[in-house]
Write a structure and sequence with these properties.
Uridine Diphospho-n-acetylenolpyruvylglucosamine Reductase, domain 3, Vanillyl-alcohol Oxidase, Chain A, domain 3, five-stranded antiparallel sheet, 16 strands, 26% strand, globular, binds flavin-adenine dinucleotide
Length: 317
């Protein structure tokens, strides 16, 4: 249980937030509409989402999270929870509401013997993977380093190690969650098992996760990178067949889209449909080269960055 401070009283307008009181109550930062940095703090990954919250709280601890959840409950203001800010629907920012932004909470404790990690939910997939990679360890997240571990984990998490180790939630061992009543709960298979079940795929609907305990796997040098192929029906069809037939060490995430006018794409292909698979073989390197060969043979690649590399480099731009 965390100590709670009442920030509004029934005598005052219940939807009025006292910014000075909130600043005094929280250890983290409070960003109000008149503050420098407000526009930057309310911006999310997808352009076109232009919302103006009443206040943005950059929480510093689970106790702060509990206070902010209680403030939202008491005032009735909309609460938008933000980890990495990549929600397509813009769920991590709201008009006139409170943003609970976890991005200052980035503590990461790795137990190399147990191969587990406690990770605060302000970390991005790239930040977590870079630190875990210094120990030759990894947990599977998605294909983009800037995605927050908060959103991707609560949503399930399909990533570069999915065929070998499963979804991100298959490696979730426990979580600390602040529920709507402001309580901080440790949830795992034995303690609050229903809530543990619900957060593994149920998104942010059941509470605010302040940190996760993950299983780590030995993942050091992988064979991986990006291929760019012309997206003819034959190539797409064969790509799917090869991905299904590949050994489980190989995971593929592919986008089909018009070729962007990037310098590495030959000019005559700009705007034409391409398939852009990101491939990772997590296993013995020569076997990886063999497993990737059929993908390279689907068509003459327009670009090919696949090579042996430390796993965290998959998240570098
Ligand atoms: C470029 C891009 C690439 C992607 N690639 C993949 C991929 O390869 N694999 C994959 O599985 N997904 C992928 N996704 C989807 C991504 O996992 C989801 O959009 C995810 O929810 C984003 O998490 P976030 O923390 O960055 O976003 P946010 O917008 O911060 O959060 C997303 C949702 O989760 C809630 N939430 C976030 N943190 C918490 C928390 N700690 N407690 C409670 N609720 C919380 C938010 O309120 C919001 O509803 C991708 C998305 C983008 C934009």
């Amino acid at each position: 249980m965390t100590k709670q401070t009442r920030l509004t009283s029934p005598e005052t307008n219940p939807t009025t937030i006292s910014i000075p009181e909130l600043r005094a109550a929280l250890n983290g930062r409070v960003i109000a509409p008149d503050d420098a940095g407000y526009d930057e703090a309310r911006a999310v990954f997808y352009g076109g989402i232009d919302r103006r919250p009443a206040v943005i709280t950059r929480v510093a601890s689970a106790a702060d999270v509990s206070q902010v959840v209680s403030l939202a409950r008491e005032t009735g203001l909309n609460l938008a929870v933000r980890s990495g800010g990549h929600s397509l629907a813009g769920h991590s920012v709201s008009d006139g509401g409170i943003v609970l932004d976890l991005s200052d909470m980035k503590a990461l404790q790795i137990d190399t013997e147990q191969r587990t990690a406690w990770a605060e939910t302000g970390l991005t997939a790239g930040e977590y993977t870079t630190v875990a990679g210094t120990h030759g360890l990894a947990t599977s997240f998605g294909d983009t380093g800037s995605v927050g571990i908060g959103g991707i984990t609560l949503g399930g998490g399909v990533g570069y190690l999915v065929r070998k180790y499963g979804l991100t939630i298959d490696d979730l061992l426990a979580a600390d969650v602040v529920t709507a009543d402001g309580r901080l709960l440790r949830v795992d298979a034995e303690t609050h098992p229903d809530l543990f079940w619900a957060i593994r795929g149920g998104g942010g609907n059941f509470g605010v996760a302040t940190r996760f305990r993950f299983r780590l796997h030995e993942v050091d040098t992988i064979v991986g990178g990006m291929l760019l192929l012309p997206a003819t029906p034959d190539v797409i069809d064969s790509f799917v067949a090869e991905a299904e037939a590949a050994p489980e060490e190989l995971s593929a995430i592919a986008n089909i889209m018009p070729a962007p006018p990037m310098p590495f794409v030959p000019a005559e292909h700009h705007g034409r449909l391409i398939i852009m698979p990101m491939l990772v073989y997590a296993g013995e390197l020569e076997a990886g080269e063999r497993a990737i060969a059929p993908f390279r043979a689907l068509a003459t690649p327009l670009a090919d960055t696949i090579e042996p590399k430390p796993y965290p480099e998959m998240y570098e731009p």
